[in-house]
């Protein structure tokens, strides 16, 4: 009974976190915070890709551990994946609140794609946009379900945890893998 009370509280917290994250992500393109002189967060995009890649690795490791019924190792791997995802989210939001947007194909970094720049990336741009939009959309949709899946495992609701994890895991893994791919595709256009 105590675990169900805890689960209800954690579920409420998961919804609050989800709404807060979605509001922040929605605001970060419109609101820009000026950093003090000499400060530059330009080092963060490769860190974002690294954190996403490490999340993907930890998810695969967690999957292997659970298949081998190594519950404690699985649990620690999931904690690590959640930690990497949290660090990613914090640094991603900080970067986008303080830095101009980088456009795929914008070689001169002026924030506008000229016809020449657009022509140079015309074949790859749709691929990039599909990856980016699916990455962002699935990240937004999956966030509460990642948290709920974790909560079910944490509170001992193992049957519900397994049922959710079957479809949450591949979506979370897709998001974690496509993040670094999008970064690698965008990397030539960072200032």
What does it look like?
With 191 residues, this protein is an all-alpha fold. The chain has helices at 2-27, 44-67, 71-98, 115-120, 125-154, 158-186. The protein is elongated and about 60 Å long. The protein starts with a helix and ends in a 5-residue tail after the last helix. 18% of the residues are buried.
Reported for the largest beta sheet, the result is: none
What is the H-and-E element order? HHHHHH
Q: What oligomerization state is this entry in?
A: single chain
With helices defined by DSSP (H or I, 4 residues minimum), what is the helix count?
A: 6
The CATH topology label is: Four Helix Bundle (Hemerythrin (Met), subunit A)
Mean pLDDT across residues: 92
Q: Catalogue the unreliable spans.
A: none
CATH class: Mainly Alpha
Give the strand tally.
0
The assigned CATH architecture is Up-down Bundle
Integer count of domains: 1
Cα end-to-end separation: 55 Å
Key features of this structure:
75% helix, 191 residues, Four Helix Bundle (Hemerythrin (Met), subunit A), mainly alpha
